[in-house]
Amino acid sequence: MTAIDRELTSTELPVDGTEMLSPELQRLAAEVRTFADEVVAPASYEYDTARRLPLDIIREMGRMGLFGLPLPTEYDGQGKTYMHLCVAVEQLARVDQSIAVTLEAGLGLGAMPIYRFGTEEQRRTYLPSLARGEHLAAFGLTEAGAGSDAGATKTSATLEDGWWTIDGTKQFITNSGTPITSVVTVTAVTGEVERRDGSRGPELSTIIVPVPIDGFTALPAYDKVGWHTSDTHPLVFDGVKVPEGNLLGERGRGFANFLSILDEGRVAFAALCVGAAQGCLEQAVDYAKRRVVFGKPIGDNQHIAFTIARMQARVAGARAVMHDAARRIDAGIPFTKEASLAKLIASEAAMANAADATQIWGGYGFMNENVVARHYRDSRILTLGEGSTEVQLAIIAKQLGFEKSFG
């Protein structure tokens, strides 16, 4: 049985924030929430301390159908919507951001480029095992000198006698070095193009690299401030050779394609942020009701109650803009501005709620075994990953007609 098959019982209330969603989405939220609370949360501190991705949990998520939610059934997916993915990511992120980003990046950045831009042969080769959660995919974009400025990419791919030869390095790549990583999609310079002003610039293309493969190395994992369970590595491509047919999409369309993928990814990333903000809210409410100081629960103090009310307001606002962006994806209408709005608002809500929850928990909120402390550490990356706050502001400004705001 997949996560969307179970019926809600007559006495079971919808999960907070899903009351206006369809019954199917409510069932999904309830099922993933139960899994998060009963399976992910109890193991979270152990895996965080070990800094190891729990493959048993990832495989169970695959059996639930989570890694195939928005992928068509012909590729072993669930044939559902992007909203389904966002609902699942949110519920996981309440208790463990690392597990949530493994799903978000594995699908939104790993599998979706192949689904959106791949040939039928590429889809049938790679998507089924990704949809089943048996393998993970990574998206190799960021470099030491090319993050927000992806046009500064230095990784190159040269075509000769029907083979691409790839040389270069990538940084901060999620899901790139796990025992079940099967493919890394790489942006690379494949030539030069003439710009509108007559100048010459790099031609960026995207190429599928199945791994392991000769010349590919996932260097030791980063020692990160947070997201300890999430797999993140620098990558080296030293003369990696793949067939010409591994080009993903049209040659020279890599820049446009990855912008499209990042727009989608930001919506699922916003769902992760909403989940983190919701998790902090729940922890603050629970502790404020049972922590007694000077003879009364701390929640009886107006300052604490108002702080928690503001946390609720942040969650509600962030979830609303995230749902709006997800609906736009599913409706096939433009969503670039809405994706950036969702990512901007939700990431700042998660950071603020993590700080408030830690303050409410006091000393206990500073202990790593407490999920609040892990949210405090983990949430710092949320205003940086998949486009920094400054990038989101520039995109929104550009969408409003301020063309020169972005590079």
Write a concise synopsis of the structure shown.
Residues 23-134 form the Acyl-CoA dehydrogenase/oxidase N-terminal domain. This protein is of the alpha+beta class and 407 residues long.
Name the descriptors:
407 residues; alpha+beta; 4-stranded mixed β-sheet; 10 strands; 48% helix; FAD; AcylCoA_DH/oxidase_NM_dom_sf
Structural class: alpha+beta
Low-confidence segments, given as residue ranges, are: none
The termini sit apart by 49 Å
- How do the strands of the widest beta sheet line up side by side? 1-4-5-8
Order of helices and strands: HHHHHEEEEEEEEHEEHHHH
* C-alpha geometry: globular
Number of helices: 10
- Rg, please? 21 Å
User: Helical content, roughly?
Assistant: 40-55%
Based on DSSP secondary structure assignment, what is the total number of beta strands?
Answer: 10
Main beta-sheet annotation = 4 strands, mixed
- Beta percentage is 15-25%
- Average predicted local confidence, pLDDT: 95
Protein name: Acyl-CoA dehydrogenase family protein
Cofactor: FAD
Organism: Agrococcus versicolor
Family: Belongs to the acyl-CoA dehydrogenase family.
